[in-house]
Amino acid sequence: MNENISQNINWFPGHMAKTRRLISENISFCDIVIELLDARIPNSSKNPEIDGLTSTRPTLTLLNKSSLADPDATGKWIAEYRERGKYALAVDCITGDGLGRIPSACASILKAKIAGWNDKGMSGRKIRAMILGIPNVGKSSLVNRLCGTKKARVEDRPGVTLSKQWVSAGKDLDLLDMPGVLWPKFEDPETGKNLAFTGAIKDSILDTETLAGELCLRLFTLYPDLFLTRYKLTAEATEGKGAWELLETVAKKRGFLISGGEPDTERAASIVLDEFRGGKIGRITLECVKQRDQ
After folding, report:
1. How do residues 223-252 score in pLDDT, each as one tens digit?
2. Residues whose CB is less than 8 angstroms from the CB of residue 244 and which lie 6 or more positions away in sequence, other chains included
3. Is residue 244 assigned to a domain?
4. CA torsion sign, 243 to 246 to 250 to 256?
5. Is residue 140 located within the same domain as residue 224?
6. Residues paired with residue 165 on neighbouring β-strands, in sequence order
7. Interhelix angle for 265-277 vs 243-254, to 10°?
8. Confidence of residue 14 (pLDDT cuts 50, 70, 90)
9. Are the C-beta atoms of 6 and 185 separated by less than 8 Å?
10. For the stretch 249-287, what's the b/e string if a residue is b when 16 or more beta carbons lie within 10 angstroms of its beta carbon?
11. Are 137 and 250 in a shared domain?
12. What end-to-end distance do the CA atoms of the chain give, in Å?
């Protein structure tokens, strides 16, 4: 699966070469960068090249989809960012939680610059923010929420935003929505897995049964109570089982069987992935602060 992920990244529209150029061409028109990360996988959902491309501007990091993530883990991530001297907020572009703090956070970060504008007779000048993040992390949903109307196309699949677009987000903020950015090769195979688990990589290029089996094992390892409860399993029924065996166990428990009574792992895989991504298994974070890059 990992090789499959690495070898098929080029299908993303607006892949890294094009997006790198767009960022370089437009960063001078922006005052601040708003980078969205997936609160369930803060490390894996961060393109390591973005910091270098946007180093001339301050960044506000948003841990999006926080309603799907473990709140204790999200709190630790926010604290970690602040300890590094970075600005971070937990938000959710579906529920709207935390979004109201974004304009004031941008203004606070740019306090000195805004004072300079006022001294030059530019009082009331709108802050211009570049929105960056990997595909399917919620950029278009953020834009639509902040604008209060549907300005950007939104679908629950990666690669929907194909080009840049400026939109107004009220009297204080203009947003430059950019295409999703993924890097051409993952140095760490776990990064590819995490992105695939959360739906940042198209399922159509993956072996979803293998993927779902590995997700079952990860969930059983990190959040055993949530996993067992959701699929009505017992510790005895899952003891010592590997990824594929766990997926088969889920299929059997849900009554997903094919001819001969064999477990329908394809159907079970679709269910497990959908239920994880939709938060039906519980609020889960796959990366802890201690796993961050040093």
Report:
1. 999 999 999 999 999 999 999 999 999 999
2. 210, 213, 265
3. yes
4. positive
5. no
6. 177
7. 90
8. very low
9. yes
10. bbbbebebeeeeeebbbebbbbbbbeebbeeebbbbbbb
11. no
12. 27
Per-residue pLDDT tens over the stretch 67-111: 999 999 999 999 999 999 999 999 999 899 999 999 999 999 999
Domain that holds residue 68: 2-177
Q: How many Cβ atoms are within 10 Å of 77's Cβ, its own excluded?
A: 26
| Environment class of 294 (CB within 10 Å of its CB; exposed 0-12, middle 13-18, buried 19+) | exposed
Do 27 and 53 meet the contact criterion of CB atoms below 8 Å apart? yes
- pTM here is 0.87
The angle at the Cα of 154, spanning 106 to 34, to the nearest 5 degrees, equals 20
Lookup: tokens for 4 = 């499959």
Which pLDDT does position 178 carry in this prediction?
Answer: 86
CATH number at residue 50: 3.40.50.300
